[in-house]
Amino acid sequence: MSKYPETYIKVHTFGILFLTQCQTTVVYSATMLCALDKKLYNVMAEKSGNIEHATVSAYNNKDTVYTYLRQVMALPFLPPEHIPDTFRQLDEKADHPGVQKVMDYIYKTWIRNSVFDIDYWCVFMSSIRTNNDVEGWHNSVNTRVCTRGPVPFYSLVTELFKEASDIPLQLKLVSEGKLQRYQRKHSRQTQGRLFALWDEYCNNSISASRLLKECASVYGPPPK
């Protein structure tokens, strides 16, 4: 999260309120996963005292912490109504001090937060939004507004308002098949596997807990 939390909250609150008026859905899944990935990285370093060694031991060796954290990071792929209860079940299994810090962070920032409502970052039955897409959009905004030093808060709000105003048109173009994005073969395969799992869940073929485990095996931080 930004080192200026008050500004961070103001900007996101403005975006949520405006886009809600436009009856559009705001998805924060990429933001959540990116922030959580950094938090997990620090915890793994704390676990062994060395970031490189911790990453190798936790991910390449695929120990219980690896499996547990993969499931934690797969929470956005569950239906929103199942996320709080599933989080509590995972939280009860957190037996390492470092992991408990991560769970406390998730609870305060994503589960019980007036700004980041679960519906905004849940991606159940939604197309994958990678961090690259978010970074690309962020870089384009920076290029337009960061020309002479720090950007005044209200100038940033004005720019975000312009961005939000284009959403209805972009949605129409997407629905008509006139606005597309390039997707690598691996990304298409991953998305196909996720939708297959979601279809199984919707057809009552698998439970929510099974869906979490399967999504964790498909989508998560790769071994280093």
Question: How do the helices and strands line up, and which of them pair or pack?
Answer:
Layout lengths: L4 H17 L7 H20 L2 H10 L3 H10 L9 H9 L5 H15 L6 H4 L9 H15 L7 H13 L1 H9 L9 H18 L5 H11 L6
Helix pairs in contact: 1-9, 2-3, 2-6, 4-12, 5-6, 11-12
Can I get a quick summary?
This protein is mostly helical. 67% of the residues lie in helices and 0% in strands.
Query: DSSP strand (E) fraction?
Result: under 5%
How large, in whole angstroms, is the Cα Rg? Answer: 19 Å
Secondary-structure content class:
mainly alpha
Q: In whole angstroms, how far apart are the ends?
A: 24 Å
Residue-averaged pLDDT = 75
Q: What gross morphology would you assign? A: globular
The sequence of SSEs as H and E is HHHHHHHHHHHH
Total strands: the figure is: 0
Largest sheet: none
Q: Can you give the helix content as a percent range?
A: 55-70%
List low-confidence stretches.
16-28, 50-56
Describe the protein in words.
α1 runs parallel beside α9 (153-165). The chain has helices at 5-21, 29-48, 51-60, 64-73, 83-91, 97-111, 118-121, 131-145, 153-165, 167-175, 185-202, 208-218. It is 67% helix and 0% strand. It contains twelve helices and no strands. It has a domain at 28-122 and 182-218. With 224 residues, the protein is mainly alpha-helical.
Question: Could you list some keywords that capture this structure?
Answer:
224 residues, 12 helices
